[in-house]
Design goal:
alpha+beta, four-stranded antiparallel β-sheet, 11 helices, 30% strand, globular
């Protein structure tokens, strides 16, 4: 019994050290260089970069030319208009277009999609906000929409089904020839937004629909009937993986579609025009996606810790310029190669790329097994030196054989009980 208790203790210790020891190692062993924050200047028509170097902000262009803070702000008037207005440096027009604070505010776009949003727990209960209540502000509904089958509305307080409302929406789905079950649903269940776009849904045939509640009545539209006729075939060919909705003041970007292959499409404007972003390298499982816009341009960036791509687009979403920057991955740097040999495996419980908490076990390099063997031989020699029969220390030797340095630390820290 004591044998199995000690084996369990050591196994638990190895797993905990496999989590905490590598984390501590990376805090001191490698100061990771951060990729810059990218802007696009409507004055110079070039990319500008904010880069953190030794705790300070370094403002440069892509050629490395440095700018003072005020000079940098003058090149980005649409991003720094509040400061420029305060300093009375804001131009009255840019590229022939009149500039006003209201126009600057209304034309701004700021969309962000993180990898964890694609891989997070979700409850299939949706608050369908009233899109046209006649009130200034949106209000959270008293019921939730369940779409695991035909639409069902559940009153939150009484936990009962609103049969009349459910039947009304079911009839709307049938009239729109929606093929159940719902495969994807994307919406923004938040009342702190300028308006409500509702939910975008894909049915079992991958057809895209938009669902809204307008003055208590269902409004279900098939996107193939809304997009320009010459884009219907392109829309039907999409393979959506994730639907992202984030309403903006200018009502321009209605929907962000991430496809199975990593392609990103936008549904924009009152005519529901389909735009495919000309990104070269985007992995939605690992990379952040940001869409920023102003009265003149649109800037799309995708990045992870090691790669950055930025594309500048005009208001018609035509490509103006592209900037990319990469750095070696952590595993490819000297500290990473040392860690791969030193740690036979690492254990993480959560990840920036997922909203789930679980066990993520990653193996080290193949040469880590040779180091484990070396640790094991040292442990056997140490036991002989202390005149202890190795056969009586099988749990400790097993911890070293499997856990390498983790097992060695446990032998030194955990008292031996005879």
């Amino acid at each position: 019994m004591r044998f199995f208790a000690r084996l369990t203790l050591l196994a638990t210790g190895v797993l905990l050290l496999a989590h905490y020891l590598p984390s501590g190692y990376w805090l001191v062993a490698d100061q990771e260089k951060r990729l810059p924050f990218v802007f696009y200047s409507c004055i110079s028509n070039e990319f500008l970069l904010n880069r953190f170097v030794n705790g300070e902000i370094e403002r440069t262009d892509t050629q490395g030319h440095r700018f003072e803070r005020e000079e940098f702000e003058d090149l980005l008037p649409l991003d720094n208009y509040m400061q420029l207005y305060k300093d009375r440096r804001m131009p009255k027009e840019i590229n022939g277009l009149a500039v006003t604070p209201e126009k600057l505010r209304r034309d701004r776009i700021n969309l962000r999609l993180k990898p964890a949003e694609l891989d997070s727990p979700a409850v299939a209960l949706y608050p369908l906000i009233e899109a046209d209540s006649g009130r200034v502000r949106l209000e959270m509904p008293v019921d939730l929409l369940r779409l695991t089958g035909t639409p069902v509305f559940i009153d939150v307080k009484s936990n009962t089904v609103n049969a009349a409302k459910s039947a009304k929406f079911t009839a709307a789905f049938q009239a729109a020839q929606f093929a159940f079950p719902v495969k994807l649903a994307g919406g923004n269940p938040n009342i702190l937004k300028p308006y409500d776009e509702g939910y975008y849904l894909t049915d079992s045939r991958n057809a895209l629909y938009q669902l809204r509640q307008v003055r208590g009545e269902p409004e279900l539209k098939k996107l193939a009937d809304l997009v320009p006729p010459d884009q219907r075939a392109q829309l039907d060919a999409l393979q959506p993986r994730y639907l992202h909705v984030q309403e903006q003041d200018n009502h321009e970007v209605r929907l962000v579609i991430v496809e199975e292959g990593g392609q990103v499409d936008l549904i924009i404007g009152s005519d529901y025009r389909l735009v495919t972003l000309p990104l070269q390298k985007y992995d939605p499982a690992d990379m952040n996606l940001t869409v920023r816009g102003d009265m003149l341009n649109r800037l799309v960036t995708v990045n992870d810790d090691n790669h950055l791509e930025a594309i500048a687009l005009d208001r018609d979403y035509k490509l103006l310029n592209r900037y990319t920057e990469s750095q070696p991955a952590r595993a490819e740097r000297p500290a990473g190669r040392v860690a791969a040999v030193l740690f036979p495996f690492t254990l993480d419980f959560e990840s920036d790329d997922s909203g789930f908490v679980g066990f993520d076990l990653a193996a080290g390099a193949g040469t880590a097994a040779l180091l484990n063997l070396g640790w094991l031989l040292l442990a056997v020699a140490w036991l002989w030196w202390r005149k202890q029969a190795p056969i009586r220390r099988l749990p400790e030797l097993a911890a070293v054989a499997v856990g390498g340095i983790f097992g060695v630390i446990l032998i030194l820290l955990v008292p031996t009980v005879e």
